[in-house]
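Exercise 7.
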Amino acid sequence: MNIKSLLLGSAAAMAVVSGAQAADAIVAAEPEPVEYVRVCDAYGTGYFYIPGTETCLKINGYIRFQVNAGENVGGDSDWDAVTRGQLQFTAKSDTEYGPLTGVIVLQTNADNASTQVAKLDSAYLDVAGFRAGLFYSWWDDGLSGETDDIGSVVTLHNSIRYQYETGSFYAGLSVDELEDGVFKTGEEPNNVGVAFGIGGKAGAFSYQVTGGWDFDNEDGAIRAMGTAELGPGTLGLAAVYSSGPNSYYSQSEWAVAAEYAIKATDKLKITPGVQYYGNYWGTPAKLGAPDDFDGLGDAWKVGLTVDYQIVDNFYAKASVQYLDPEDGDDVTTGYFRLQRSF
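Solution. The predicted structure, written as tokens, is:
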């Protein structure tokens, strides 16, 4: 073998080895399996499985733009524009006690670019009828319009409650921390209350009875509401009685309210309403409640609310209200709202 043959053979061998190494270098590793988001239909529409878990999550919320009108409603102005954004996260999973639910609601209200208030609007857990956390009480409910004023000044509490419910009936009892409720001059905002709620539906009729006892103020309130489909709309009636100013109801000693929600078209609803107050104190600040309602004058209120569904998940609402208290000046207020839900 001469030198030339030896060099050619060595070069060929090196080429084979180099080719093998190059081929080995570009062999890609097997990709990790990807778990795509799966739809969870066990709890209704909008839920999906959190990847790697058996917990179902739903994200929804709304964007609201509203212009309020009334005397000095915007400080020195008789109008004020506000914007709200709200997100709700609902998590559900099956347990031996039934679905375990957790809810977080985040809300930000913007009066302008530099004046914004972000808050935890609700956060609670719920299982087997038991609920604990920050959530709205039964006293937050009302008739469908804007005229009725039959709820608490503050309806969001840290509470523990149990509620039994079927498809057409519910009954429950709650213990509420009323720390930011109504209290009298010289008192401290350290309060507790017990409330109950009973309600249901029977055909075209629905009803609700709500009561509450405020231990610090040593007074309570009870309220009854009912709605019935009648003609082209829905008639709503309500009555409330309070033994004295307390965190569950403090606007007046008693009140009655009525409304008729007229479904003019598939998209348009018109709701006139009226309310009469006996021994009216008003919608007060939390501090400085009187000992009782004795000696206060009456009041009445009338209003009109119009709802229009522009497209799916997007509606407009306009409302105007007139209040005439016997012991004060009459007041006219209103607002126009645009809201997109998702």
